[in-house]
Design brief:
Distance between the termini: 30 Å
Number of strands: 11
Strand content: 15-25%
Strand order of the largest sheet: 2-3-9-6-8-7
Structural class: alpha+beta
Order of helices and strands: HHEHEEHEEEHEEEHEHEHHHHHH
Helix content: 40-55%
Number of helices: 13
Radius of gyration: 33 Å
Shape: elongated
Length: 408
């Protein structure tokens, strides 16, 4: 093995008799270099976008959410839930009651989703960053307030001026008597004063967040809740999820943020790997330059091959010489390309070289370098280069042998 590597190293760095071969070898290195750097940069940019999107989603979603495995509502009373509320690893515990409602303001209507929560819970984990305008409060001085999603406010055109601007919420009474003659008696309606507007966030734009007591009164559901939302003292602690699931048993589902919105997570991640696949295909085309480089080298080193054969070298040894040269081209190109990609990502993170349009959620494109991605990129490039180098060296030596036989 040492002899083929020695010859491959000499052939790679020595001056060839035909200057075009040096140029083709350089193009091969540059092709691998650019492909690797592009993969590092593109994946890091997509990681940054993924991290940003999911961080925005995490502002609006609880760390853990408990739902019934069957049905829509359940009783939040009992010893298990009492233990859960007193768990020292939980920083925020809130019962939640949700349902679809018809919101009305100034003769304009919109079907949204009411979400009743415990007023104290919103102060423990929410921040002003989640609001477009208004105050982060749903109860004060025994007055109930509502926080409107961006789509609710946009459709109803509700101003945040004072207590006189109230949104009327309507919902069919699930406990209405079937003997009612007047259909309006089957509709429950309650006014709520808007106190804030949520920032635009897909999946949360139709929300109307209110105190849970107000939601229970509107929905006429005083004994049951839809879910329990939790925040742990240590964010994203997998042990806490397992502990809660074990406590509650199979009658309940304990969902983390990814399980609460699997479509969002799958979409964000699938986009990244689709782009990775496309850029990899482009990179493979560039890596095929190695075939041309090795073909030209075999022609240039024709006399060397003849001498090696006369000294007893078999086809396998000669093939390995050119095979290892292809590997060296790929190794140099991939390592330098990865280094260039990492440097560019560092500059982007520090100085924001690539900026976005004015009015975007961020000034410069975010980047997030993950070394597992770097390993995958290098592994992919080297595997493709190894295959290409093997096929090129094998076919070139076979072709050389045929030409030699014909000439003799």
């Amino acid at each position: 093995m040492r002899l083929p590597v020695f010859f491959a190293k000499r052939y790679l760095f020595s001056k060839k008799s035909v200057n075009a071969i040096n140029i083709i070898s350089g193009i091969s290195v540059v092709g691998v270099l650019v492909s690797t750097a592009a993969l590092v940069i593109v994946l890091s940019f997509y990681n940054g976008l993924e991290k940003f999107i999911l961080s925005q989603y995490s502002i609006f979603s609880p760390e853990l959410r408990i739902e019934p495995s069957k049905g829509k509502v359940f009783s939040g009373q009992g010893e298990k839930f009492k233990q859960l509320r007193e768990n020292p690893n939980i920083s925020s515990y809130s019962e939640v009651l949700e349902d679809k409602v018809l919101a009305e303001y100034n003769h304009q209507q919109f079907i949204g989703k009411i979400k009743g929560i415990e007023p104290e819970s919103i102060k423990s984990h929410a921040t002003q960053d989640m609001l477009f305008a208004g105050n982060l409060s749903i109860q004060g001085d025994s007055i109930n307030f509502g926080i409107l999603g961006a789509q609710v406010q946009a459709n109803l055109q509700v101003p945040l001026r004072g207590a006189d601007d109230q949104v009327l919420l309507h919902i069919p009474d699930k406990h209405a008597s079937p003997n009612n003659i007047n259909p309006l008696e089957d509709i429950r309606s309650r006014p709520i004063t808007p106190n804030a507007i949520l920032r635009f966030q897909p999946g949360f734009d139709d929300l109307i967040i209110v105190p849970i007591d107000f939601a229970k009164d509107l929905l006429n559901e005083h004994q049951h809740i839809s879910a329990i939302e939790l925040f742990g003292k240590n964010d994203n602690d997998p042990k806490l999820k397992s502990e809660i699931q074990h406590l509650l048993g199979d009658d309940f589902l304990v969902k983390n943020r990814e399980q609460q919105n699997p479509t969002l997570y799958k979409t964000v991640r699938s986009e990244k790997w689709i782009v990775f696949f496309i850029v990899t295909i482009i990179g493979i085309i560039a890596i095929f330059n190695i075939i041309g480089s090795l073909t030209m080298l075999v022609i240039d080193k024709k006399q060397d091959v003849v001498v090696l054969k006369s000294l007893g070298a078999n086809d396998g040894l000669i093939q390995n010489v050119f095979f290892y040269q292809g590997i060296m081209i790929a190794l140099i190109g991939s390592l330098v390309g990865a280094a260039i990609g990492l440097v560019f990502c560092w500059l982007q993170e520090r100085y924001g070289l690539v900026t976005t349009n004015e009015g975007s959620l961020f000034d410069a494109y975010p980047v997030d370098v993950r070394y597992s991605d770097i390993f995958l990129i290098l592994l992919t490039v080297m595997l493709v280069s190894t295959l290409v180098s093997y096929l090129a060296s094998r076919l070139n030596i076979k072709g050389f042998n045929k030409r030699t036989m014909l000439e003799s």
